[in-house]
Each structure stands twice: as C-alpha cells, then as structure tokens.
Design a protein that fits this description.
By secondary structure, this protein is of the alpha/beta class. It has helices at about 5-15, 75-80, 100-110, 125-135, and strands spanning about 30, 40-45, 90-95, 110-115, 140. The protein has a five-stranded mixed beta sheet, sandwiched between helices. Helix 3 (about 100-110) links the parallel strand 3 and strand 4 (about 110-115). Helix 3 packs parallel to helix 4.
C-alpha cells in the first residue's frame, strides 16, 4: 500500500495524537512545507516542566482543576516545535482548530489547515475559528481519507 501525501501527513498527525494523555480528546498536528517536508509536529499535552500526572485532565467546574487552563493544544505545540519559519505551510490536524489555535496558525503564516473532524462545529470557539481563518485568507478543508486503516508492526 502506498499512501498519498494527505493520508501520510494526516497519519503522522494521528500517530502524534497517540502521545496525548487526555482521556477524552487526543489531538495531533503535523506541519508541512511546500516541499512536503515535515517541519513541526505536536499533540495536546501539558507544557514542558508541568508533570502530566500532577495537573488535571478533567473538565471540572472548579477552574483550577480544569484541564483547559493548562493543556497546550496540538496545533500550538506543532507551531512551537517547528524548526523553520512557517510562512505558506500546511497544517494537518485531527480536529478543526479552536479559536485560540487559529490565532496562532494565522500569526505563524500557515496558509492551509487540513482537518479530519469538525465535531465541535456547533460551538462558538469553532465558529469564531472559521470566521478568523476566512478573514485572514487561511484555507481550511476537511480531508476525505483514501486510506481507512494503517497497521504498524514494530517487529518489521
């Protein structure tokens, strides 16, 4: 089986998501330049130096015990982990970015976002995200995969 570029890069994003310890929403991102070279990857996790066994992973009503105050989203991690300027790059991400991540995507110079799921399309943060991406001229599209499953055998 030979993967096309879109399936390959989304596969990298999905594999990166496997690093996340978030029990509800594991997200991965992969940034690619115009030469189809990976220049950044990320997953949703705690900031460096913040032990993910100490900080919360729940969506508690008590703000200080709510993961959303602490977690760095996959998109921002991929941008921060990038090795080069991101002007005109594409980002592959397993979930359409929230408004905070879209701000970082726009500011970084990324020009296209390719995502798998838009399961939060009804939320204000995703509505705002789409509005900002459109206004800034960042294309975004949902990927229809050609490949449904990839088996990785670490003994091969």
């Amino acid at each position: 089986m030979i993967l096309n570029w879109d399936d390959y890069f989304m596969g990298i994003a999905l594999l990166s998501a496997k690093r996340s310890k978030d029990p509800n929403t594991s997200v991965g991102a992969c940034i690619v330049n115009g030469k189809n070279q990976i220049v950044g990857v990320g997953y949703n996790g705690m900031p460096r130096g913040c032990d993910d066994k100490v900080f919360p992973w729940c969506n508690d009503k008590d703000n200080l015990n709510n993961k959303y105050l602490y977690v760095v989203h996959a998109e921002l991690n991929a941008i921060l982990n990038s090795t080069v300027p991101l002007d005109n790059c594409k980002m592959y991400v397993s979930l359409l970015p929230c408004s905070e991540c879209s701000k970082a995507i726009i500011q970084s110079g990324i020009k296209k976002v390719i995502y798998l799921s838009d399961k939060y399309s009804h939320t204000d943060t995703v509505k705002a995200s789409k509005k900002m991406l459109c206004a800034a001229g960042v294309d975004f599209e949902q990927l229809i995969l050609n490949t449904i499953k990839i088996d990785l055998d670490f003994n091969h």
